[in-house]
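Team,

Forwarding the record for the chain on the shared tracking sheet. I've put the sequence and predicted structure together so nobody has to dig through attachments.
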Amino acid sequence: MKRSILSSLFSLPLILGAMGQSSQPKFAPSAIVTLADGSVHPVADFAFFSYARRGGGGFYTPSSGVRPWLLYVVQGPIWRTYDLAAVKSVHIADEGTGWLNLKISFRDGTNLAGEHPAWVWDRTWFGHGAVYLQGEASVLGRIGAFECLVRDISTIESVDGEAPRVQFRVTRKGPDQHTDLATLVANLRFELRWRDDTPTLLDRWGLDDDMSVKVNDTVISIKPREIESISTMTAGDQWTAKLRDGNTARIELPPRIFGRLQNGDILFTTLSDNGVQNVTKIEFM
């Protein structure tokens, strides 16, 4: 007997926000970051980032776009990734702080808790957009494309099967914000989407980019690759930089750093917050 369209749909492979390990390039660290807790993290794709700032004026043509996204679990400087097929449930709470509280339970009984930005533009390394959950659902006897803002979701629960035969019950706020709506969704995935949106002005400096820094109240241009290491012994925004040419100086740096860990997690953090260090040393490869 032929399987129904819905049955075939729910047996499709689960689409995750990242490809399989075979498609991943070899991990090549570009820096080693030491955090304030003493943990040491080799990272690839290291870059400095500015704070996000809104642009003004009418010279920019609004754009639209979409890209795959992972619903990261932010734990301080580390943005954790995970296999969605291993998830039993996700609880999301928006308490109006700009961060969503995430509590994830896995099929093996372990748990993971942290945060995710309610909006992307001001708290990530990407300058615009919001995160949507997408998939396929059956309504009125038809298969359709499901989509909703992650910040409107209260729970995502696996209801049957092992990967790839996984479907999830997604519960979210109704139109009146007082009732809950629940939908069975297959091929669950997250996407970062924006439409007619002026991007945030967000500066990024990779290892070979000219970066403006201040030394002795003098602004100079330097490539991060020219630096051997930067370190601090006291709280604040002043760093000691040792250059590859042997020079050493106190230096003011951009406020945020980015890097990819070997396991797929992201290291993205401010160097310090209100005089409290998040990072104590960076060594460049």
